[in-house]
Amino acid sequence: MTYREQHQSSITDPETFWAEKATDIAWFNSPKTILSKDEHGVSRWFADGLLNTAYLALDYHVDNGRAEQAALIYDSPITSTVKSYTYRELRDEVAIVAGAMRRQGVGLGDRVLVYMPMVAEAAITMLACARIGAIHSVVFGGFAAKEVATRIDDATPSLIVTASCGIETDRVIEYKPIIDRARSMSTHKVEQCVVLQRPQHLCELATNTDISWQEFIENAPPAACVPVKATDPLYILYTSGTTGQPKGVVRDHGGHAVALKYSMKAIYNVEPGDVYWAASDVGWVVGHSYIVYAPLLAGCTTILYEGKPVGTPDAGAFWRVIEQHKVKVIFSAPTAFRAIKKTDPDGEHFKKYDVSSLQSTFLAGERTDPPTYHWLADLLEKPIIDHWWQTETGWSIVANMTGIEHLPVKPGSSSVPVVGFDVKILGTDGQTKKTGEVGEIVIKQPLPPGCFPTLWNDADRYQQTYMSIYPGYYLTGDGGYIDEDGYVFVMGRTDDVINVAGHRFSTGEMEELIASHVSVAECAVIGINDSLKGQIPLALIVLKDGITDDGTIGTEIVQMARRDIGAVACLRTVITAERLPKTRSGKILRKTMRNIADGESYTVPSTIDDPVILEEIRQLFDEKLVSQ
Ligand code: COA
Ligand code: AMP
């Protein structure tokens, strides 16, 4: 079947389509009910199926001829380590950690918060949770204590698993003090914290509440796989919304396993036994889906890379990993390749390696800008595939489905709707836009398997934010258009979310933080273009009457953002303005300011309170942004 035929059948008869795909995984109890509604009226997949995701990812392969194949290769240039785990070894380690968790009292439905660097134990912990039906909530290691505390209070975990440190190129980042601070800030108290002591930095452990990883797993009885319902949660992954309260995206077991396994062949065109490398972090959705779960569900070898695209040790790092492990498909963010391009524009490092194993490169996290696309395509002379997805969906919404039919690439577009996703463009009036017209990108319900069925503890917010604005559709929060060939062009967020180096942050959250500074009367944070990171935040502040800026306020705000959100948010530019441009009803004109900062044309809104302010802002940006 061609791509279009498959897509059509997945839209006209999703139940038959996904019932057939579901036969591709080894259920403990195959589902009879394919699509149904839960008590909130949300569509759910495979409700009466029983399975275990860790079984499918590990034991199934051990029992079916892959026991001695490499399942996971931990490659860490910053610690000079390469360690390979066969499927049997990984299954055994996971079973022991699962047993240790159970011995600690963690059971079905309990939450485990994971705050770890890119070490194999992070993936092992996630799979161990899946094995006993516990729900993991991984928090990206670059987040500060306050962010961790918010997640502890929302997920109310019974256990935290962390490490003594992360390593950022050549700097040791102590994780334990961050966790200690988070634990003291949170209302929910977590009694036990497991700490992986890394030789690069050993931390102190509190006698009653901390336990080292070694002690934790010592003599732990291996745990068997617990059958769970397809609709039981596998994990909660927090993502930025428009406020300081992050959204706990819930992923359930059944749809996730079916969709991810399907995606490995249909989208990435890999077979069992192939080496697949998602150069991301387990703290983000790409890491969950394509470092840990999908490659293992598909019987591939996955690479867990603890390093950067440049500086560990140089801009040849990615090519070295591809050569050394014979990577067939690499998946990363455009920003990573921009970093390589910036350091090694002529590909001098690239020339030193044999990347003939590589079939294609997939990019996501932000739109692939055509200059990066062309640079990479010319260098590699292999397909470069941009694909668009979100934490909420867990797999891509728009992609070139290379395992079904490799369609021509259009630079600037992430190609066509993935099988299962009925993508439409709506105007704010809810009417479908014509071909080529920009509007809100929405997906007609039901969402396919793998997409989030709810937000943790907040079924109402799920409906209000995503499902009820355009009834019958899921609102993605991205704007864009579909061209005459059905290619989707994603133009960027329509809300207060920005993407910094492929990582998602809320400008609303940054504003809430900055507004708490004692000297700030009001503020606005906008995402502006950055040649390396795609977007970076820019804060505009108006000081309270009588306060003069002696140059320290901006520095204090930058420090606040590093302390409370994390350095990874990259809030480094704070500009003091006399006043902010607003509509007559008091809404700050953030989009217009963004256009000005990016040097784009803009129309002066008819609702503006005082047009002169825009000119003031333009002059301010000319002066301050050019001088950076
Ligand atoms: N733990 C602690 N701190 C972290 C961290 C982590 N896991 N990850 C990043 N940080 C810190 C960095 O040390 C840096 O701190 P600094 O301001 O004190 O120097 C800050 O957060 C910003 O980090 P980063 O975004 O990594 O910027 P960089 O300038 O060091 O590197 C890139 C730039 C492009 C190389 C890097 O952003 C990158 O590799 N991006 C790829 C992103 C990616 O894979 N996205 C996945 C989506 S698919
Ligand atoms: P996250 O949930 O962190 O994966 O971020 C999802 C957001 O990243 C999307 O809503 C988009 O704004 C952006 N994004 C991800 N991939 C792409 C892409 N290929 N093209 C354009 N935007 C993208």
Radius of gyration: 24 Å
What ligand molecules are bound, each kind once? coenzyme A, adenosine monophosphate
What is the overall number of helices?
18
- Gap from first CA to last CA: 54 Å
Mass-distribution shape: globular
Bin the helical content: 25-40%
Number of domains: 2
Strand order of the largest sheet: 5-4-17-16-18-19-20
CATH-derived architecture of the largest domain: 3-Layer(aba) Sandwich
Structural class: alpha/beta
**Main sheet, how many strands, which sense, barrel?**
7 strands, mixed
The overall pLDDT average reads: 96
The total beta strand count reads: 31
Portion in beta strands: 15-25%
CATH class of the largest domain: Alpha Beta
Low-confidence stretches: none
CATH evolutionary superfamily of the largest domain: ANL, N-terminal domain
Report what the structure shows:
The chain has 628 residues and is of the alpha/beta class. It folds into 2 domains: 3-307 and 387-476, Rossmann fold, CATH 3.40.50; 498-627, GMP Synthetase, Chain A, domain 3. It has a 7-stranded mixed β-sheet with strand order 5-4-17-16-18-19-20, sandwiched between helices. It has a 5-stranded parallel β-sheet with strand order 7-6-8-11-12, sandwiched between helices. A 4-stranded antiparallel β-sheet has the order 23-24-25-26. Helix 16 (552-564) links the parallel strand 30 and strand 31. Helix 4 crosses helix 5, helix 12 packs across helix 13 and helix 17 (590-597) crosses helix 18. The chain is globular and about 70 Å long. The N and C termini lie far apart (54 Å). It binds coenzyme A and adenosine monophosphate. Coenzyme A binds at residues 141-142, 166, 168, 173, 279-280, 284, 286, 308-310, 332-333, 335-336, 339, 364-365, 501-502, 532, 567-568, 570.
